[in-house]
Amino acid sequence: DVQLVESGGGLIQPGGSRTLSCSFSGSVSTFTFTHLWMTWVRQAPGKGLEWVANINQGGSEKYYVDSVRGRFTISRDNANNFLYLQMSSLRVDDTAIYYCARGGTASSWFWEDWGQGTRVTVSA
Amino acid sequence: DIQMTQSPSTLSAYVGDRVTMTCRASQSISNSLAWYQKKPGKAPKILIYEASRLEGGVPSRFSGSGSGTEFTLTISNLQPDDFATYYCQQYKSYSITFGPGTKVDIK
Q1: SS3 of A21, please?
Q2: What is the pLDDT of residues B34-81, one digit of tens each?
Q3: In chain A, what residues touch B98 (CB-CB under 8 Å)?
Q4: Which of A92, A118, B23, B30 could in theory staple to A6 by disulfide, Cβ–Cβ 3.0 to 4.6 A?
Q5: How many alpha carbons fall within 13 Å on the CB side of residue A11?
Q6: Are A115 and A99 in contact (CB under 8 A)?
Q7: What DSSP letter does each residue of B23-87 carry, written as one string?
Q8: Residue-level pLDDT at A29
């Protein structure tokens, strides 16, 4: 079983920065964090799900939704089983619950385990 | 980017009903489609991947079908726990997109 726990959310002023963290514990069959694609997905208030960013096992491949590219950076610490999302130049429309989720070993990007989310509010 | 649409946006049904919802992609995505259930205050839960493969632990009353640009999620014998919003997601493109969701509520 896999457990994902996000942290780092809060109230941030427009233009500010924040780093979200996601701790990973457990395994998927014989696969551990280092074998798995990871992602961040968000849900703004009253809106649907929006994919934010992906990262591959070694961190060499990263993909972003257009609206955050250049402002957000996804990264991972495989030694300590952490996923991160560094957010900068935050805008009011970045307000959302941010979820981390894990994929598989291949680049089939569906997400089988999810954290409970961390709330980010961008407001003056 | 591949655009995803879902219909209907809201679906009202009784417990015990069979319900079907549709997801369409703006271009062919083969079978690179997943379905998720989302309840308020809860994390999304995957139901189906590769358009028709049931995720482990998901009740067999959920089923998915389709390929190319048109997909369906069917819930047979709707249960009280199934009232939620359902999202499709394509992963054919590296720019992943979700549909806007279909909300299933109690009639």
Answers
A1: strand
A2: 999 999 999 999 999 999 999 999 999 999 999 999 999 999 999 999
A3: 48-51
A4: A118
A5: 2
A6: yes
A7: EEESS--TT-EEEEEE-TTS--EEEEETTTEEPTT--TTEEEEEETTEEEEEESS--GGG-SEEE
A8: 86
B70 near B18, Cβ under 8 Å? no
For residue A29, count other CB atoms closer than 10 A to its CB. 7
| CB-CB under 8 Å, B87 with A48 | yes
Q: What is the CA radius of gyration of chain A?
A: 14
Instruction: From chain B, pick out residues whose CB is under 8 angstroms from the CB of A41.
Output: 44
For the CA atoms of A112, A83, A47, B4, the dihedral, rounded to the nearest 10 degrees, stands at -60
Q: Enter the tokens of residue A85.
A: 């999302």
